[in-house]
Amino acid sequence: MRQFSAKDFDPATFLEFISPGKKLICLPEKQIIFSEGERSDSVFYIEKGTVKLTATSRQGKEAIIGVFSRGDFLGESCIASDQPVRLHNAVALTEVCVVKIGRDAIIRVLVEGGDACYSFVTYLLGRNARLSTELVNNLMESSEERLARVLLFLAQPGRIDSAAKVNQQTLAEMIGTTRQRVNVLMKRFKKLGLIEYGHGLKVHNSLRSVFRND
Question: pLDDT of 160-179, one tens digit each?
């Protein structure tokens, strides 16, 4: 078995440490992977496709927390307690293939400790820090800046499917504005040569010029 490096988290290597207790599941577009309030008994690793994670307020309003793709893990609430429940909803934006990892298998790796445990926990902390930063950005930045930040994130290597499949309504929900506002901003970005779309979405690094404080 390959040695696990705690420096750079490698999901494929981490999955090698989990056996038995995992299985590959492929789901169609719009399929619910798990729902808020359900019993949380597994973690999911996205091997192919794009998934959106949402939360619902007491008033029934749904907000998109983030969009995730190959290499991301979801559902780690299963390790939080003896009787955990889902804190979010996970829905396939595209056809997806996920590795479902049972709670017992994850707990076993964490209890054994070592580099595998350390790297996985470090990955989760880093991802949650990113989500927290995005929340702050949504509160402090203009809608133009928030949209640019989301597009740049989705256009990172390995996330091109995310950028191609996320529609303007989803983008609007992610940055807390209207679809009409997103449409106006996308047209502005295109006119300025910061993005290209029509036959797929291409995001240029020059889009960073819209940030006031970066």
Answer: 555 556 788 888 877 878 99
Q: Which tens digit of pLDDT belongs to each residue from 13-36?
A: 788 878 788 899 999 988 999 999
Confidence (pTM): 0.74
CA quadruple 120, 122, 123, 127: dihedral sign: positive
Q: What is the CATH number of domain 142-210?
A: 1.10.10.10
Distance CA 10, CA 120 (A): 9
Say if residues 105 and 18 touch (Cβ distance below 8 Å).
Answer: yes
In this structure, the number of other CB atoms found within 10 A of the CB of residue 83 comes to 8
Residue of 206, 205, 172, 165 whose CA lies nearest to 186: 172
Whole-angstrom distance, CA of residue 115 vs CA of residue 39: 29
- Reply yes or no on domain 11-137 having CATH 3.40.1170.60: no
